[in-house]
Amino acid sequence: MSGPLNGCRVIELAHIMAGPVAGLMLADMGADVIKVEKRDGDDTRRFVPPTIEGESAAFMMMNRNKRGIVLDLKTHGGKRILEKLVREADVLIENYRMGTMEKLGLGYDALAKLNPGLIYCEVSGFGRTGPYAHRGGFDLIAQGMSGLMSITGEGPGRPPVKVGPPISDITAGILAAMGIAAAYAHKLKTGEGQKVDTSLFEAAITQTYWQSAIAFATGASPHAMGSAHPLNAPYQAFQTADGYINIGAANQANWERMLKIMDAEELNEDPRFSSNAGRIQNLSALEEILNEHFRERTTGDWLSAFEKAGMPAGPVLSITEMHQDPQALARDMIVTMKHPVAGDVKTLGLPVKFSRTPGGVEKCAPLKGEHTIEILREIGLDEDAMRQALEDGAAFAHK
User: Fold this and answer.
1) Cβ-count burial of 338 within 10 angstroms (0-12 exposed, 13-18 middle, 19+ buried)?
2) pLDDT of the chain along its 399 residues, tens only?
């Protein structure tokens, strides 16, 4: 692998999403990520349908660029193999319930004795301290407890709505990768390892920066506003003659530019709308007036006019439409991989570009136990020891 983290070895003892997102980010940036699965595999192997030639689409999305080994950490042999892996690793990622790794004798204190330079990243529902540390966590729970579901949806009086994707899982994985990268920079300077601890709860809380700022200042909790922004207007979706368009008139210059394009400059003379504060206070009335204007022309007509004037605007695309968008394609955000079973499989690309050390997607997700033999050889097991590990059930290799 190329990429800025080339030479960094990561042991991923994580399943489903948050921990694997962290591993995915590091792998895309060049780290050698070894995914350690339990005997029956990561649970996302059973997140089906859909499948492609029998392979879970969910698993393939989350685990590209990684090598795969299967170990039974409840066996003596499985633990010894993991310890050998840890001795030569820079990072270990785990997202088990609190105390699980310690019960196995594989917690941070034990592994740091084997490798003082180890960066040990824990991704959990609520973090490893505080009154909720013992609780398990899921994205839905974190979204609700963070306040996100109270500010998502059509508006006051409507049922709570979660953000469509598992945003706390994904954000926790990104935060974990950021924390690991920072700890790795420290290790390169000092040789010291450390623990990195983040959670779904904290990840979801970080998504409330604007709404928390409002609540801190006013003492009142913001409410759901559909697609509108709590601090700028108009900054939302409007209905056109044939669909919807997103408008980003988030400052006075863009507001006035938008009115000129729409031939509605008289609205700037209306004291309700002449300033951003007024537009926020009178948002319902503004929405009604602007929707009447936008419904006069198609989305394509409006987009063409706004683009010519340099006005921020965009269509509301479906996921499949996004996959075909020329900008997404130009930025290598849609990538095709060759899978040994599923054939050509599309995945999402690396969202960070590096001018000197480019990362990217180079390998498909591993078959269960695909690299077990390869990795056991790397850590020094001879043929007899490998055969014994497989016969004892300490390890499993794909055949």
Assistant:
1) exposed
2) 689 999 999 999 999 999 999 999 999 999 999 999 999 999 999 999 999 999 999 999 999 999 999 999 999 999 999 999 999 999 999 999 999 999 999 999 999 999 999 999 999 999 999 999 999 999 999 999 999 999 999 988 899 999 999 999 999 999 999 999 999 999 999 999 999 999 999 999 999 999 999 999 999 999 999 999 999 999 999 999 999 999 999 899 999 999 999 999 999 999 999 999 999 999 999 999 999 999 999 999 999 999 999 999 999 999 999 999 999 999 999 999 999 999 999 999 999 999 999 999 999 999 999 999 999 999 999 999 999 999 999 999 998
As given in the structure block, the two tokens for residue 222 are 């913001």
How far apart are the C-alpha atoms of 353 and 343, rounded to whole Å?
27
- The answer to whether residue 169 is catalytic is yes
CA distances from 262 to 13, 82, 259, 292 (A): 55, 64, 5, 11
Domains of the chain with bracketed CATH: 9-207+326-396 (3.40.50.10540), 244-315 (3.30.1540.10)
Determine which one of 28, 42, 169, 197 is catalytic.
Answer: 169
Cα radius of gyration rounded to whole Å, the chain: 25
